[in-house]
């Protein structure tokens, strides 16, 4: 039953994360993701079969409770940004910010569902399910936000750190991440 709560929230959160990158890249002047149809909430455009479905399902059934997944990275061409450095930082942080916003929205949802659960005489099971799903949404989005802040290439935090490194270290830092 928990899988019915976790998997849709994980997929939705990953898709929103990627759409945020694509949308901000477009605002910064790069239409690459738009041309490829990646500014959409349709999960088919973003899901990596291995990282979005198979790995999370396998991890769900392995003892230990670790859940992990990823989507196809949004193609971005920073050379098209009006402001290379600032645009690259904003695009990199967009996914993280989207996950933090989703965590807040899921938190508000928990509050609303708890209030409704107490106010309505029927549907206790439904509200319990919705509360549990929203709680997973909080957890998953906070994990995604924090994980993507890690400054290890290719994670989002690495793109931000890259721009604050001395020029002499940037190339070796990028190469160290693959």
Strand portion: under 5%
Cα-to-Cα separation, first versus last residue: 39 Å
The structure class reads mainly alpha
Specify the number of helices. Answer: 7
Determine the mean pLDDT.
91
Low-confidence stretches: none
Helix content range of the residues, please? 55-70%
Q: Got a strand count?
A: 0
Which shape, going by the Cα principal axes?
Answer: elongated
Major β-sheet annotation:
none
Q: What is the N-to-C succession of helices and strands?
A: HHHHHHH
What does this structure look like?
This protein has helices spanning 2-27, 32-35, 49-61, 84-119, 124-149, 156-162, 167-176. Helix 4 runs antiparallel to helix 5 and helix 4 (84-119) packs antiparallel against helix 6. With 178 residues, it is mainly α.
Brief synopsis:
The protein is mainly α and 178 residues long.
Offer a few descriptive terms.
single chain; 178 residues; mainly alpha; 7 helices; 69% helix; 0% strand
Topology:
Blueprint: H1 2-27, H2 32-35, H3 49-61, H4 84-119, H5 124-149, H6 156-162, H7 167-176
Helix pairs in contact: 1-3, 1-4, 1-5, 4-5, 4-6
